[in-house]
Amino acid sequence: MNTEKNEKPLKKVCIICAKGTIEDVYATLVMANGAVMEGIEAKVFFTFFGLDAITKKQMNKLHTATVGNPAMRMPGGLPFPSLLGALPGVEAGVSAMMRSQMEKLDIPPVDEFLEMITAGGGEIYACKLAMDMFKLELKDLWEGCSGVLTIGDFYAKCGGENTQIIFT
């Protein structure tokens, strides 16, 4: 049992982002930025649809999941009927509302958030397998991307005492 006396501070977080929705990408960005702001080494690996967060054409056009999202709420806190999300334009409207609310809270767009993370020493990586699957090249990615790695290469960067791997 750990007590405060023998707990060791977190030194490194390695975050894997596999989903490309606004809520999943921003959870990743907030955690990575919070880490670098606290002086914790941060490495972020974007795979599968999470690659949208670092793909130039997609990174500032992310959407929120409206169908099958049990946590989705309407104004006033009422549950959002999942079927509504299938109607044309609903997902785009909900996504625009989310971006508007984030803008009001002065939450930066994805590209600026990535710049903040890397300026603080964080590293951003793309998954080689997902890049191959989606036929993407390095030129398709945000310029600050640290490279394209296999998951094994990423895990090799995640070693060390007091390291946490987080999957979003």
Explain what this protein looks like in three dimensions.
With 168 residues, this protein is of the alpha/beta class. The protein has two domains: 8-60 and 109-167, Hypothetical Protein Ychn, Chain: A (3-Layer(aba) Sandwich), CATH 3.40.1260; 66-108, no CATH class. Helices cover 32% and strands 15% of the residues. The protein is built from five helices and five strands; from the N terminus they run βαβααβαβαβ. It has helices at residues 22-37, 90-104, 110-119, 128-133, 151-157, and strands at 12-17, 41-46, 123-127, 147-149, 163-167. Strands 4-3-2-1-5 form a five-stranded parallel β-sheet. Helix 1 (22-37) packs parallel to helix 3 (110-119). It is globular, with a radius of gyration of 17 Å. The two termini are 27 Å apart.
First and last CA, distance: 27 Å
CATH topology of the largest domain: Hypothetical Protein Ychn, Chain: A
Number of strands: 5
Q: So what's the CATH class of the largest domain?
A: Alpha Beta
- Total helices: the number is 5
CATH architecture of the largest domain: 3-Layer(aba) Sandwich
Helix content: 25-40%
Q: Please tell me what the overall shape is.
A: globular
Largest sheet data: 5 strands, parallel
List unreliable stretches of 5+ residues.
none
Rg over C-alpha atoms, rounded to the nearest angstrom:
17 Å
Assign the CATH superfamily of the largest domain: DsrEFH-like
Structural class: alpha/beta
Question: What is the H/E order?
Answer: EHEHHEHEHE
- Average pLDDT, rounded to a whole number, is 85
Total number of distinct structural domains: 2
**Proportion of residues in β-strands:** 5-15%
Q: Order of strands across the biggest sheet?
A: 4-3-2-1-5
